From TrEMBL:
It comes from Streptomyces antimicrobicus. InterPro entries: Spherulin4 (IPR021986). The lineage of its organism: Bacteria, Bacillati, Actinomycetota, Actinomycetes, Kitasatosporales. This is Spherulation-specific family 4 protein.
Length: 249
């Protein structure tokens, strides 16, 4: 099982409190389309580690007042907003990614970045490190999450605060195996995103996450499709109550 200590300078404070399991929203729909969902993230007692803002597959071409309002409220409630950067398995250039990141910081005052579809091979590590190093210069204490969706080469953990080591459906997740090297690190370094989790399997899914050493999760009953993460699960209140701050693990 993972150790329960955290290396200095890794993971945001909300994600490290007592190693508690918490939520990371991979990217709700635009706040104009999902106002209730964004409002729920600010509800007191919600065990939120962070939420990803994705305006139009990135920050968009100009500041969006609806996004400014939603992210301002979340930050005001103590939440962390991460700007979505689409790496597209390494297909986007360094300049494009850094330009997007600058707009997120300037327009929405994000607290970090979620890099989507990050390469997982050792051969791509140097290129990803270059991007991450540039992002670190944009502000103090920025939280960086690499969205591999699978277990990458272990060296990626050295450059990020958290890695998404599973992103997929419940049918695969319930039988998934954790990479052996992850046991050398605390749970708050790893995230799991799982769609299609039935309500009657929610407790089982939480057990899998804890057993595999994930500290940040997003479970939803929404099926695979255009974007299973765009809305909240039907059992939102239940999952909040199961892993909220009043729950002993």
């Amino acid at each position: 099982m993972p150790h329960l200590t955290t290396p200095p300078g890794t993971a945001c404070p909300a994600a490290t409190e007592s190693g508690r399991l918490g939520l990371g929203s991979p990217g709700y729909a635009h706040p104009l389309l999902a106002p209730v969902e964004w409002a729920e993230l600010t509800r007191p007692g919600t065990p939120l580690h962070w939420a990803v803002l994705n305006v139009t597959d990135g920050p968009g071409q100009r500041p969006d007042p609806h996004c400014t309002e939603a992210t301002g409220k979340l930050a005001g409630a103590g939440g962390t907003v991460l700007g979505h950067l689409a790496m597209r398995d390494g297909a986007r250039s360094f300049g494009e990614l850094v330009s997007d990141a600058h707009r997120y910081v300037d327009w929405y005052r994000v607290g970090g970045f979620y890099l989507d579809r990050v390469p997982a091979d050792r051969s791509e590590l140097a290129a990803v490190r270059r991007v991450v190093d540039a992002l670190r210069t944009l502000g103090d204490g920025l939280h960086l999450v690499l969205g591999h969706g699978t277990h990458p080469y272990p060296g990626y953990l050295e450059i990020a605060d958290q890695l998404v080591t599973f992103s997929g459906g419940w049918a695969d997740y319930r039988w998934s195996q954790v990479a052996e090297w992850t046991s050398e690190h605390p749970p708050e370094r790893f995230c799991h995103f799982v769609h299609g989790v039935p309500r009657n399997r929610l407790e089982e899914a939480l057990r899998v996450a804890r057993w595999q050493g994930a500290g940040t999760i997003w479970f939803t009953d929404r099926p695979a499709g255009a974007d299973p993460w765009a809305g909240m699960p039907a059992y939102w209140d239940e999952i909040v109550s199961r892993i909220g701050p009043g729950v002993s693990e």
